[in-house]
Amino acid sequence: MGYCRRGILLVFLLKLKTEIRIFFEQATIGPVGVALGAEVGSLPLRTGVQGLMGVTQTTMGWVISFVVPYIINPDAGNLGAKISYMFFGMSLIISIILFLYTPETKGLSYEEVVAPL
């Protein structure tokens, strides 16, 4: 009976940790892509950028949720928790690219943002 209680407690703690991580992610970096797609593009391109962003986000979410279990599984990729290094490396590269190529729009009017396009 003791093992069952520890298992239920473990599942509860993992669920709680996941909910806390999701809360802080969505409160900080989570909606950045949506905000950039909506505010940086010019008005004629905005609908296309939003559509492309939505399709890309949905497709990549599906690919990751389909492939990651195979990568973690001992019968297939056998990476286990080491998959976090792979995601960290990809996130670091993408963060650097975004930092270098995302235009600064703080303090600019709408006309100044659209002018370079």
Descriptive overview:
The protein contains five helices and no strands. With 117 residues, it is an all-alpha fold. Helix 2 packs antiparallel against helix 3.
Query: In percent, how much strand structure appears in the residues?
Result: under 5%
Radius of gyration: 20 Å
Q: Percent of residues in helical segments?
A: over 70%
By secondary-structure content and strand pairing, the structural class works out as mainly alpha
- For the report, how would you describe the main beta sheet? none
Total of DSSP H or I helical runs spanning 4+ residues:
5
Distance between the termini: 66 Å
Tally the structural domains.
1
Give the SSE string.
HHHHH
Shape: elongated
The mean pLDDT is: 84
Number of strands: 0
Poorly predicted runs: none
Topology:
Layout: H1 2-27, H2 32-39, H3 43-72, H4 83-101, H5 110-114
Quick synopsis:
With 117 residues, this protein is mainly α.
Features:
mainly alpha; 0% strand
